[in-house]
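Figure 2 data, in text form.
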Amino acid sequence: MTVLRGRSRILSALPAVLAVLWALSAPAPAAAAEIPWVTISPLTGTRDATPTTQISFLGVPATDISQIVVQGSQSGRHSGRLEPYATGSGASYLPYRAFTVGEQVTVTAVETVGSAHRSIGTSFTIGSLYIVTPHSGATGSTGATGATGATGVSQSFVSAPTIHPPMVNVTTPAADPALGDVFLTPAEGSIQPGAMIVNPAGQLVWFAPSPPGEQSEDLRVQQYLGRSVLTYWQGYIALGHGIDGVGVIDNTAYRRIAQVQAGNGLSMDLHDFVLEPHGVAWITVFEPVYMNLSAYGGASNGIIEDCVIQEIDVRTGLVMFEWHAIGHVPVTNSYSGVSRSPGSIWDWFHINSIDVEPNLNILISARNTWAVYQIGHTFGEILWTLGGRHSSFTLGANVRFAWQHDATLLPNGSVEVFDNEDSPRIEARSRGIDIALNTTTRTATLRHEYVDLGHEVLSASQGDVQQLPNADQLIGWGQVGLVSETSSTGTTLTFQLSLPPLVESYRDFRFPWSAVPATRPALVASAGSTAGTTAIAASWNGATGVVDWQLLAGAGASALAPVGAPVASTGFETLISAATAARYVAVRAIGAGGAVLGTSAAVAVGAAPA
């Protein structure tokens, strides 16, 4: 089987429409070999580009692109400006006015590298968007910010009274605590939704409540411009996907240093937010558009949910690359039926993961086609399909998957998938699977299967598989609210924790994490139960290195001195009974070796948290 990888220069291997496109004014063969291909988005043949789309030129510096002509079949010629990417890898042409729905847009330009020239371009159609709002069939949590939920479901802290994360129950202690903390995004049930980090003992490290009505998803550690950062999606959920959402990038002090939004008038979806170290983000987008669905059993004025991948230059917000499922994958490949009900939206594809390969090809998962696709980054062509109605590979025993999530390419070339098998139910249990691909024989073979070793778990939605540095597999069971870690062969349970009933977490990850919050430690002080003592509750939301707490006390806020020996930290919040009746107190967070990590504000005994 021939598999194109990276920025392929082999036009004959592409669909005919691509081969015809840009033979215009081709340079001599020797010069052509020196000119890299430029990827132009919207890609040729895109059927539903947005009226406010930009034209993205990816592959050469902005100075190498000239003579841009953008012509709408109805709206005429569009002037605009060329804005370079911060990465230096291209530029976007931003038209000064919108295109007309239904029209064909043709773009031509000249790429110049040294003394060589090539005519380049694209042609696409403008679609008619159906606008989804947070009230369009919204699902998910209420975004409550104060309720503690049922007894035994949520945690409460004296020194952090505004947060109420769910309880976490560790049922199998971590065999290797050094593998890191667990990153969750609890939602649903009688809890406060948010982004949450717990240590291997299940103790809270950090919790950021979601704003009212919103949810947080896909919390993990990634790299941004040479630094470790915390990333997650935050926004509203409606019709099974994210809307009005943003990608949050926080530094190790939990300060927001960047934010990612979808471009071209679209909204960032929750399903994936992949950040590359050089400042590029890959995101998923759901784009409902009007389309004649009568040929598929739907309405002539139907609405279909196109799924879009966008590559975003984080520092400028420009779209570097855009790919649409419609036009690349036949809608007849869907296992999700179309409805004729007025206003219903056909969620035929449902993209739910992006994995950028080392050669820049893109691996995506589409839940409703039961398939994983490898996409070429230069022309957006489908290089191969794994699973579904028209697999490029013959599936070996027990390889078939359904309603899956989170496809990733492992270093050894195999593909890992979380196989839901539910909603509607196909098999009795969900599982993680590791599939070996042979591109010569076009066969897919099951290498390993990862199931819950205690009982059969069936997760109707969400979920992921993460290969850890020691080759253990971390399984996030999504809607079930369970996290399991197994040995590399799936035969031994090495760690497990669970959230309360009805509480879910879209994906779960495990990473080493070290952070010193920009905020100060918090404390509450009140008169102790015995005379001459003070009761202290101290915490520091997000701090990872606190070993001890040192109490400071004095007659005034500016006249404090240490009282007694440091007290060992007991988790997120430490309670201290101090032998002092001083009017003002504060605490120091002490790290390994006695280093002072942070000091709280001084508070009057009996005052509110500080």
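Caption note: Residues 11-125 form a domain with the Immunoglobulin-like fold (CATH 2.60.40.3780).
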